[in-house]
Amino acid sequence: MINSNNLKRGIIIKLEDTLYEVLEYQHYKVGQRQAIVKTKLRNLDTHKIIEKNLKAGEKLEDVELENKKVQYLYKENDNAVIMDLNTFEQSNIPLEVFGDSLNYIKEGDEITLKLHGERIMTIDLPPHVILEVVYTEPGVRGDTVTSATKNIKLETGLEIQAPLFVNIGDKIKVDTRTGEYVERV
After folding, report:
1. Where in the sequence is the domain holding 165, given as residue range(s)?
2. Which of 18, 25, 37, 65 is deepest in the core (most CB within 10 A)?
3. Residues 82 and 58 in one domain
4. For residue 147, pLDDT beyond 80
């Protein structure tokens, strides 16, 4: 059991026989009313996001997940092919399970799957990944007075905003939680 005051991003909880991942949480205390915890939760069955208010101090059932190290090999039709690093068995996983995570994973990367029984619940990504820029418009010299940005396309297909000095072939660090440019590597 976990107290609603101790929620953290990424924790898996069970509400009404359904598993949810905590995306956001915020404590509120209004006047003389009881404090509440406003949460944004992702249903792990349907991947829909809901907002739910919980009483402060409410006991919730947390779910322990098993970690499994795998290597992402490649994308094939509507599946991602992965290899178990212990048994070297390959398996196909529907792309819906990965969601936006595939924007930060290159072929050959090692990732951690969080399992509940045999079912994949979430994919653990590192906080930052290093990706190569494959396309961008050239920056115009003298356009650096303000913190101007431009669109860039990365090797995984992800498109983000980056400073004007970033060029094709540069490697940059991207925050996997927000999808934002961090720095040039």
Report:
1. 128-184
2. 37
3. no
4. no
72 within 8 A of 94, measured Cβ to Cβ: no
Amino acid 53: pLDDT: 92
Phi, psi at 169, each rounded to 5°: 95, -15
| Distance (Å) of CA 151 to CA 20, 104, 143, 156, 164 | 34, 17, 15, 15, 9
| CA 116 to chain centroid | 18
Taken as a whole, the chain contains a residue count of 185
76 and 118 share one domain = yes
- The residue with greater pLDDT, 145 or 36, is 36
How many distinct structural domains can be found in the chain?
3
Lookup: tokens for 169: 């072939």
Q: Based on the number of CB atoms within 10 Å of its own CB, is 34 exposed (0-12), middle (13-18) or buried (19 or more)?
A: exposed
Residue 114 near residue 67 (C-beta atoms within 8 A): yes
